[in-house]
Amino acid sequence: MKRLMGLVLAGVTSLALSGCGGGGDEYYPPDPNLTTLFLVDEFGDPYAGIPYLCDSMYDWELTRSNGEFTFSPPDNCEFDFYGYFGTDPDDFTVPYNEYIYIVDITDDGKNDIPYECSRFNAGNINYTYDDGIWDGSFDYDADDACVFYL
């Protein structure tokens, strides 16, 4: 009987200790510098589902249903605008311009954010600006990808 109790106690102890201290689940506290901005159109409606990847991220994410994207400054964030027409009013092959603005939670546009696109003005640094509708406007071409230096 003592032997059986010893085996049971050893088994219970083994099970109890196997859940402690092992494994690779490490805790990383939230980044206190996380910043949230939004992509919206000229009417303030969100651009949801735009793929983006920032330096502090491991995988691509999509802007949320309210246009929200989160990053940790100083991040470089690439946005993939594949499927969008861009903002070239001189290009008559574009059915209409899809203006996009970077704003904060209070809808204040963010001017002077440096960015580069793979197609629009390629190889040059551009800056978000006030286009007469909203602050935080930026230019890009159809099916472009742009990196914002946030």
Task: Produce a short descriptive summary.
This protein is an alpha+beta fold. The chain has one helix and nine strands.
Describe the structure.
The protein has 150 residues and is an alpha+beta fold. The protein has one helix at 2-18; strands spanning 35-40, 51-54, 61-62, 68-71, 76-81, 101-103, 114-117, 126-127, 144-149. The strands form 2 sheets. The protein has a 6-stranded antiparallel beta sheet, with no helix packed on it.
Name the overall outline: globular
Biggest sheet features: 6 strands, antiparallel
What is the chains' assembly state? single chain
In sequence order, what are the helices and strands, one letter per element? HEEEEEEEEE
Beta-strand proportion: 15-25%
Low-confidence stretches: 1-5
Judged by helices, strands and strand pairing, the structural class is alpha+beta
Q: Give the tally of β-strands.
A: 9
Helix content: 10-25%
Number of helices: 1
Overall pLDDT: 83
Radius of gyration: 24 Å
- Provide the number of structural domains: 1
Strands ordered across the widest β-sheet: 3-2-5-9-7-8
Q: Cα distance, first to last residue? A: 70 Å
Write the SSE topology.
Elements: H1 2-18, E1 35-40, E2 51-54, E3 61-62, E4 68-71, E5 76-81, E6 101-103, E7 114-117, E8 126-127, E9 144-149
Antiparallel strand pairs: 1-4, 1-6, 2-3, 2-5, 5-9, 7-8, 7-9
Could you list some keywords that capture this structure?
9 strands; 3-stranded antiparallel sheet; alpha+beta; 6-stranded antiparallel sheet; single chain; 150 residues; disordered N terminus
